[in-house]
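The following block was generated as part of the benchmark described in Methods. Ligand: zinc ion.
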Amino acid sequence: MRDSPGNERIGSLELIAGCMYSGKSEELIRRLRRALIGRQRVQVFKAAIDDRYSAVDVVSHDGQRLSALPVRNADEAWHRSDGGADVIAVDEAQFFDAALVDVCEELAHRGHRVIAAGLDLDFRGEPFGPMPMLMARADSLTKLTAVCAVCGAPTATRTQRLVGGLPASYSAPLIAVGATDMYEARCRAHHEVPGRPRPHAPWQAMMQAAATPSTTG
Ligand SMILES: [Zn+2]
């Protein structure tokens, strides 16, 4: 997709979303490797907050790696973006601020193939950072699932956070730096968040009203 006279490159935004252990980084690395094999210029950003394994590499759980530029926020990614890159990737997109949405849109508008990967839901099961807006604006969306650590179903979409072996409560801080936290992939039925407000409360009230025998009929 290099620039050539009369052949303006057309950009796009691809999103890779899912819970932990769903293979997001593997999928991102797979797409980037294919671009590199096609002799395309690739630039990778990752949130500086994520230093689990390496400050300068995108590392998947199976140990594959590609070098990445750690940035503190979307503004820094914008100012350090390579205008000559064919592909610009953002890993751990959920850790970025809301401005990442505009940055990705503008980069795609300028002709880059933008690929963002991240957790769509936090440990509470709620939309994480800029991911919902990125997913809505993406030209293509890949939502991956993992294997539930409890029942083995291949349909896990939630990230279970465990503190001292017990499910983390709803009021626990969103981003924990402590090393005692553990994470598992879990299906909807086995995702536990003590203290979580009941979702769909208006819907439940309607169901209760419908189930109550009428006194007027
Ligand atoms: Zn399960």
